[in-house]
User: What shape does this take?
Amino acid sequence: MATPPSIGAGGGIGAACQKEGATLALDEINAKGGIKGMKFELVIEDDKGDPKEAANVAKKFTADENIKVVIGHVTSPTSFAAAPIYQRAKMPEIIALASNPDLTKQGNYIFQNTTTQLVESPTGARYAIKNLGKKNIAFIYINDDWGNSVKVYFPKAVEELGGKLVARKPIRPMKLTSGTY
Assistant: This one.
């Protein structure tokens, strides 16, 4: 099993959710003798939150005959870069955090274990309108694969809930380093 937590965009999220979660699960499985006597090893590579690096990690994982499944990548842009490589290799990838709903359309070996923007964006819009009582909403989104899915679903939900989108502004993705978000 392999996981590519990120120190780039999504840094702390990747390390905490993927590395620590996978380590805990594998320790528990291995302590009980593994599955059908087979114990597991966790292989970790950092995709640095960079789609090009994510593709390199995916190529490295798919070239290793001992790696059978991947948990990751953290962000939608890195997941989109890596998914076609895993799909071609018929290596299952479980995406734990990236929420663009089109990720699983990359093939039948690509899975998501998280809510997508089909749920998250309407939930945010509903909270702003129903809980906070806001009707006129300005909307800032990150101009990447994740933000562009938010750009589709959030405004639609605002309008369906009777709100009005008064401004919409894309921003460039930031380069983050370890320990920052």
